[in-house]
Design a protein that fits this description.
Blueprint: H1 3-28, H2 34-57, H3 67-90, H4 93-100, H5 102-115, H6 121-138, H7 141-144, H8 154-173, H9 178-184, H10 187-194, H11 197-200, H12 209-230, H13 235-238, H14 244-257, H15 263-280
Length: 294
């Protein structure tokens, strides 16, 4: 199995874990403040990663060659998750997930400019189609004739944060050992959300503690697998795989919350997926021209 295919498969597993985490988060934001859930999640994430590394490898490497990039990456994760958490209070999971999918197309574009990855004209067309689908999913007034719900803009913040996070993941895969990035993934995010706890903390019920810990476990496992994926495949190849998350989010929304995606969400998701297919298709290699004997 090629390293690129390994990266794609790891990415798909990570995305399934993220949908499970988002669904659990949507349940819990009805009972606890978002900053508290973010802090508990990132704290549990950090502890799980440290414990797993200690048990599996006997050490917890943390000295990074790019500590500023590691801190920025973790901070972007906090921003992205906080924006999505606040959005899930007001809008269905499938709607929020559809808008978040500005991230894969933005990642492809940004990977070309920042990481120097080659993006063909066909993939640029896919990026444009994907962004058009995001616009449909947001339901702007000039399309629907109805006022735009302000919470639909929050997943766009998540998309921008995820774009920077994914690009930094790819960049750091070339600089640091993956185990170092595992450790740093939630450190800055944990520190940032800790600042809010004196103002928002609500003592959790004993029955809710395991669910809070599960948030951290899902996040730790998902992001650790994501680091391994980006160490094996280019960002421009992995980004379109994120569209599989639309399917899982839609199913979770229906089965857990009874939220059926409406026509705009389905149309937007379909256009986004079409753009993703264009981006994901492998490039054709030029065939060598036949050469006659002199």
């Amino acid at each position: 199995m090629s390293r690129t295919l390994q990266g794609v498969l790891l990415q798909l597993v990570a995305l399934a874990l993220f949908v499970a985490m988002d669904a659990l988060l949507k349940v819990m934001v009805a009972f606890y403040p978002v900053p508290q859930l973010m802090f508990v999640r990132f704290l549990a994430h950090t502890l799980f990663v440290i414990l797993a590394l200690k048990l599996l490898t006997g050490s917890v490497p943390w000295r990074s060659r790019a500590p500023v990039l590691q801190t920025l990456r973790s901070a972007m994760l906090a921003v992205a998750n906080a924006a999505l958490s606040f959005a899930l209070i007001h809008i269905p999971l499938a709607d929020a997930t559809a808008v978040v999918f500005a991230a894969p197309v933005l990642t492809v574009a940004a990977a070309a400019f920042w990481l120097g990855e080659k993006v063909s004209p066909r993939r640029w067309i896919g990026v444009a189609i994907g962004l058009a689908g995001v616009l449909v999913a947001i339901r702007p007034p000039f399309l629907t004739g109805e006022p735009l719900h302000w919470a639909m803009l929050l997943p766009l913040v998540t998309a921008l944060g995820n774009t920077v996070y994914q690009l930094l993941t790819r960049r750091l895969a070339l600089v640091d050992d993956p185990r170092i990035t595992f450790v740093h993934t939630s450190l800055a995010a944990c520190a940032l959300t800790a600042l809010a706890q004196p103002f928002v903390w609500v003592t959790p019920a004993a029955s809710d503690v395991p669910w809070m810990l599960l948030l951290g476990a899902l996040g730790a496992l998902g992001h650790s697998i994501l680091v391994l994926a980006f160490a094996r495949a280019p960002a421009s190849v992995l980004a379109p795989m994120s569209y599989s998350q639309l399917i899982w989010a839609g199913l979770a929304g229906v089965l857990i919350f009874g939220d059926w995606p409406d026509g705009w969400t389905l149309l937007g998701a379909g256009v986004i997926a079409a753009g993703g297919v264009l981006v994901a298709l492998p490039e054709r290699r030029p065939q060598p021209s036949p050469r006659g004997d002199a």
